[in-house]
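=== RUN LOG ===
request id: a7f3
mode: sequence -> structure
chains: 1
length: 194
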Amino acid sequence: MNYLAHSFLSGTDDLLLVGNFVGDFVKGRNLDVYPVTMQQGLILHRFIDTYTDSSAIIKESKALFASEYGKYAGIIVDIVYDYFLSLHWNSFSGVSKDFFISGVYSILQTYFHVLPPRAQRVLYPIIYYNWLQNYGSLYGVQKVLNRMSVRTSLPNKATVCVQVLRKHHYELEQHFLAFFPGLCDAVDAEIELL
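=== RESULT ===
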């Protein structure tokens, strides 16, 4: 799951969302430098990643991208699943996607001062290029991947990714639809325990 799904799965608490959103930027166990609810969001992010990585369905999706992306196939699947969440947004949320995304950006800007430095550096490009909205189209997915390849070690194969996504669109969509409701249920249970 990438930024859209992590945000969506955060419930209604702003700091929980902040922690869940920036989870990839915080390593190690020393979370005490962050507010308590943000720490819970970081823990939730790790729970989502562990749950996702252990799924047989996710492994099937990764296999479709493995020949081109190798060890990065998981990152590609995270982005592809955000694409499908965007397409099926109304099946999972009663809030308009535009309103939700605007709210996420506003919350992250409000709590900018508590974000880890690496997250602070990428936040405004994410907002400026409207990544969360870009997940809603193949062209947008390609733009997100191109930007990621500039700032990370992700290979610049965005065109190939979109070709694979087009070729296996139905199969990947079915994977997402089979996987995501179970993840939502697991996250709801995990939030109750935080």
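=== NOTES ===
The first helix runs from residue 3 to 8.
Residues 84 and 173 are 6 Å apart (CA to CA).
=== END ===
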